[in-house]
């Protein structure tokens, strides 16, 4: 163990039910907040992408400067990276003309290469081993690619195939349940299951956000992007506050 490993505690949360609940909520916020900035405030896709990328960089600077896991900072980074991952795929599709299936291939390869290089260098991908800044950098890069990949995957069904939101939501929920069963019976390992679930929860959360925020004539509940973002952010804040006090999601090694 090197000196940095001894100096830093684990910088990420334990993978509990709380993790996945907040992850899905954060993904929903990433989707609705990006729509709010882009469409409601009129920042445009490029302006929104630039602003959120700068915000993500600032949050990650704070995250990397910490010596232990702080729930509020970690989850703020997740919300920011969710938004940036969404905008990255949207910019490639709408601004550059990259098809969603092409984005899936590119980001799937990028995610696989990130995990392979991470393992080749560190010989472990375990969450409890993320106690150096190098491993943390791999972790956040992989997270970015999961959000970008999940965005493209969801858009395949919604935009390219034209499937209804509710069908898309149910489909990804079922896929997650199947993954859970495969993990439980030992067919899929913990690390692989985690990263696949990270990809699948992105379109699941986005579909949930759209179901709540879109107008009723677009099969939504009509709450709007702003209200949906505020409500989900409030729920995330309450859960993060609870975890900060209870420390139920801290990894003990």
Radius of gyration over alpha carbons? Answer: 18 Å
Counting DSSP H or I runs of 4 or more residues, the number of helices is 9
Question: How many domains, in number, for the residues?
Answer: 1
Beta percentage is: under 5%
Mean of pLDDT? 90
Distance between the termini: 13 Å
Runs in which pLDDT lies below 50 for 5 or more consecutive residues are 1-7
Helix content class: over 70%
Structural class designation: mainly alpha
DSSP E strands, number: 0
| 3D shape | globular
Largest sheet geometry = none
- Assembly type: single chain
Order of helices and strands: HHHHHHHHH
Detailed description of the structure:
It is a single chain. With 253 residues, the chain is mostly helical. It has one domain. The protein is 77% helix and 0% strand. The protein contains nine helices and no strands. Helix 5 runs antiparallel to helix 6 (133-160) and helix 6 packs across helix 8 (190-213). The two termini are 13 Å apart. Residues 1-7 have low confidence and may be disordered.
